[in-house]
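Q: Given only this backbone (171 positions), what sequence would you predict?
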């Protein structure tokens, strides 16, 4: 019953992470591409025409963290990639135990990340910190990181409970 509920929640979080990661990655590519073109125009006009996107580096750097966490969350559904000839030689129960152990470690790491990002969100909210160029409240950024870490916790927990030792590179 609990495993079924965790599976449903994890599936929703995986889908949301995939959509969020894809949207952020698309936005990052657009910002970088447009800034490269704007830089060419800027140089060609002798600095007379500046079409560069304000805070582009800041936008891309914060979104990179979201993309990394979202990508990790979305990629766990096919099992971890195991570059270990020893694990593949174990019987299927041994492979499942090893996989579940590593998902337990990943769950613990994701819990720590979630807690730390949550604490940073509270601290930056209390101090009223904003990003350098765009003046975006930092608690929003840390809150998004905390939510993505929470999604990683749920998906890793599901994999820890249900993994049969399958590997992403073999599937």
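A: Predicted residues:
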């Amino acid at each position: 019953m609990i495993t079924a509920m965790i599976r449903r929640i994890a599936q929703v979080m995986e889908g949301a992470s995939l959509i969020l990661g894809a949207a952020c990655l698309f936005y990052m590519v657009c910002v970088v591409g447009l800034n490269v073109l704007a830089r060419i125009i800027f140089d060609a006009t002798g600095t007379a025409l500046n079409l560069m996107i304000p805070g582009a580096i800041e936008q891309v750097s914060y979104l990179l963290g979201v993309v990394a966490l979202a990508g990790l969350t979305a990629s766990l559904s096919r099992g971890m990639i195991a570059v270990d000839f020893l694990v593949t030689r174990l019987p299927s129960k041994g492979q499942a135990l090893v996989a579940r152990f590593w998902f337990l470690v990943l769950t613990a790491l994701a819990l720590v990340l979630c807690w730390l990002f949550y604490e940073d969100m509270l601290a930056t909210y209390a101090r009223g910190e904003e990003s350098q160029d765009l003046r975006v409240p930092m608690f929003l950024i840390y809150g998004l990181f905390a939510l993505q870490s929470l999604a990683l916790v749920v998906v890793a927990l599901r994999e820890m409970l249900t993994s049969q030792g399958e590997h992403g590179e073999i599937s």
